[in-house]
Amino acid sequence: MESILISVIKKAFIIISLCFILCLQGCGNGKDLKDNIIKGYNNFIEHAGAHALTKNSKLNGTREFGSDNYTGNYKVSYKDFNGEEYIFGGTSLERDNGSNLEAVYTLNVESGEAGIYYIAAGEEYLIASGSTEGEYKFAISPGDNYIIVRGKNFSGTLDLTVQDVISG
C-alpha cells in the first residue's frame, strides 16, 4: 500500500508542477491563478484518494456511491472475515457538498469481532463495535477521511449509509 502511495505522490508532484507552469502561462490576474491552482490540486488529491478505497471487486458486499465517494450505501454479509475494507472517503481539500456527514448503521456480529471506524488526518475514531445500530455525525477536514470496516474472524452483517447533513 505504501509503494502505491509513493507512486501516487510522485505522479502528483509532476502533474502539479505541469499545472502550475501552464497556469502561469495562461492565467489572468493573481486571484484566478491561485483559484485555478487550488482547484486543480483539490481535483488531483480527490482522484488520488479514491484509489485508497477498497475496489468494488474486492469488497465482500455491495457498495453504491451517493453524490461522491464520501456518501452512499454498503450492505454486506461476512463469513469469517479478517481484515479491513475502506468503504467511503477520500482526500479532498474541500468537498462540493460541504463537510458535515452522518453514518447510519446496523452492525450484527454473530461471531468474532467487528468495528466501524472513521479515519481523519491519520487519527482513528471508533464509530461502533459489536452488535449495535445507530448514527454517527462527523465533519470531514482537508486531507484523508475514510469510513472503514475492520473484522477479526467476523461473521455477521452490516448495513451502512453515509449521507450529507443539511444545515438549516
Describe this structure in words.
It is a single chain. The chain has 168 residues and is an alpha+beta fold. It has 2 helices and 6 strands, in the order ααββββββ. Helix 1 packs antiparallel against helix 2 (30-50). The longest helix has 25 residues, at 2-26. Mean pLDDT is 82; it is low at 41-51.
Percent strand equals: over 45%
Structural class, please? alpha+beta
Radius of gyration, in angstroms, nearest whole number: 18 Å
What's the average pLDDT? 82
Low-confidence stretches: 41-51
Query: DSSP helix count?
Result: 2
Relative helix content: 25-40%
Number of strands: 6
Please give the largest β-sheet. Answer: 6 strands, antiparallel
The helix/strand series, from N terminus to C terminus, equals HHEEEEEE
Shape: globular
End-to-end gap: 40 Å
Q: What's the helix and strand layout?
A:
Elements: H1 2-26, H2 30-50, E1 62-65, E2 72-90, E3 100-120, E4 123-129, E5 132-139, E6 145-164
Antiparallel strand pairs: 1-2, 2-6, 3-4, 3-5, 3-6
List the main descriptive attributes of the protein structure presented here.
168 residues, 6-stranded antiparallel beta sheet, 47% strand, globular
Explain briefly what this protein structure is.
With 168 residues, the chain is of the alpha+beta class.
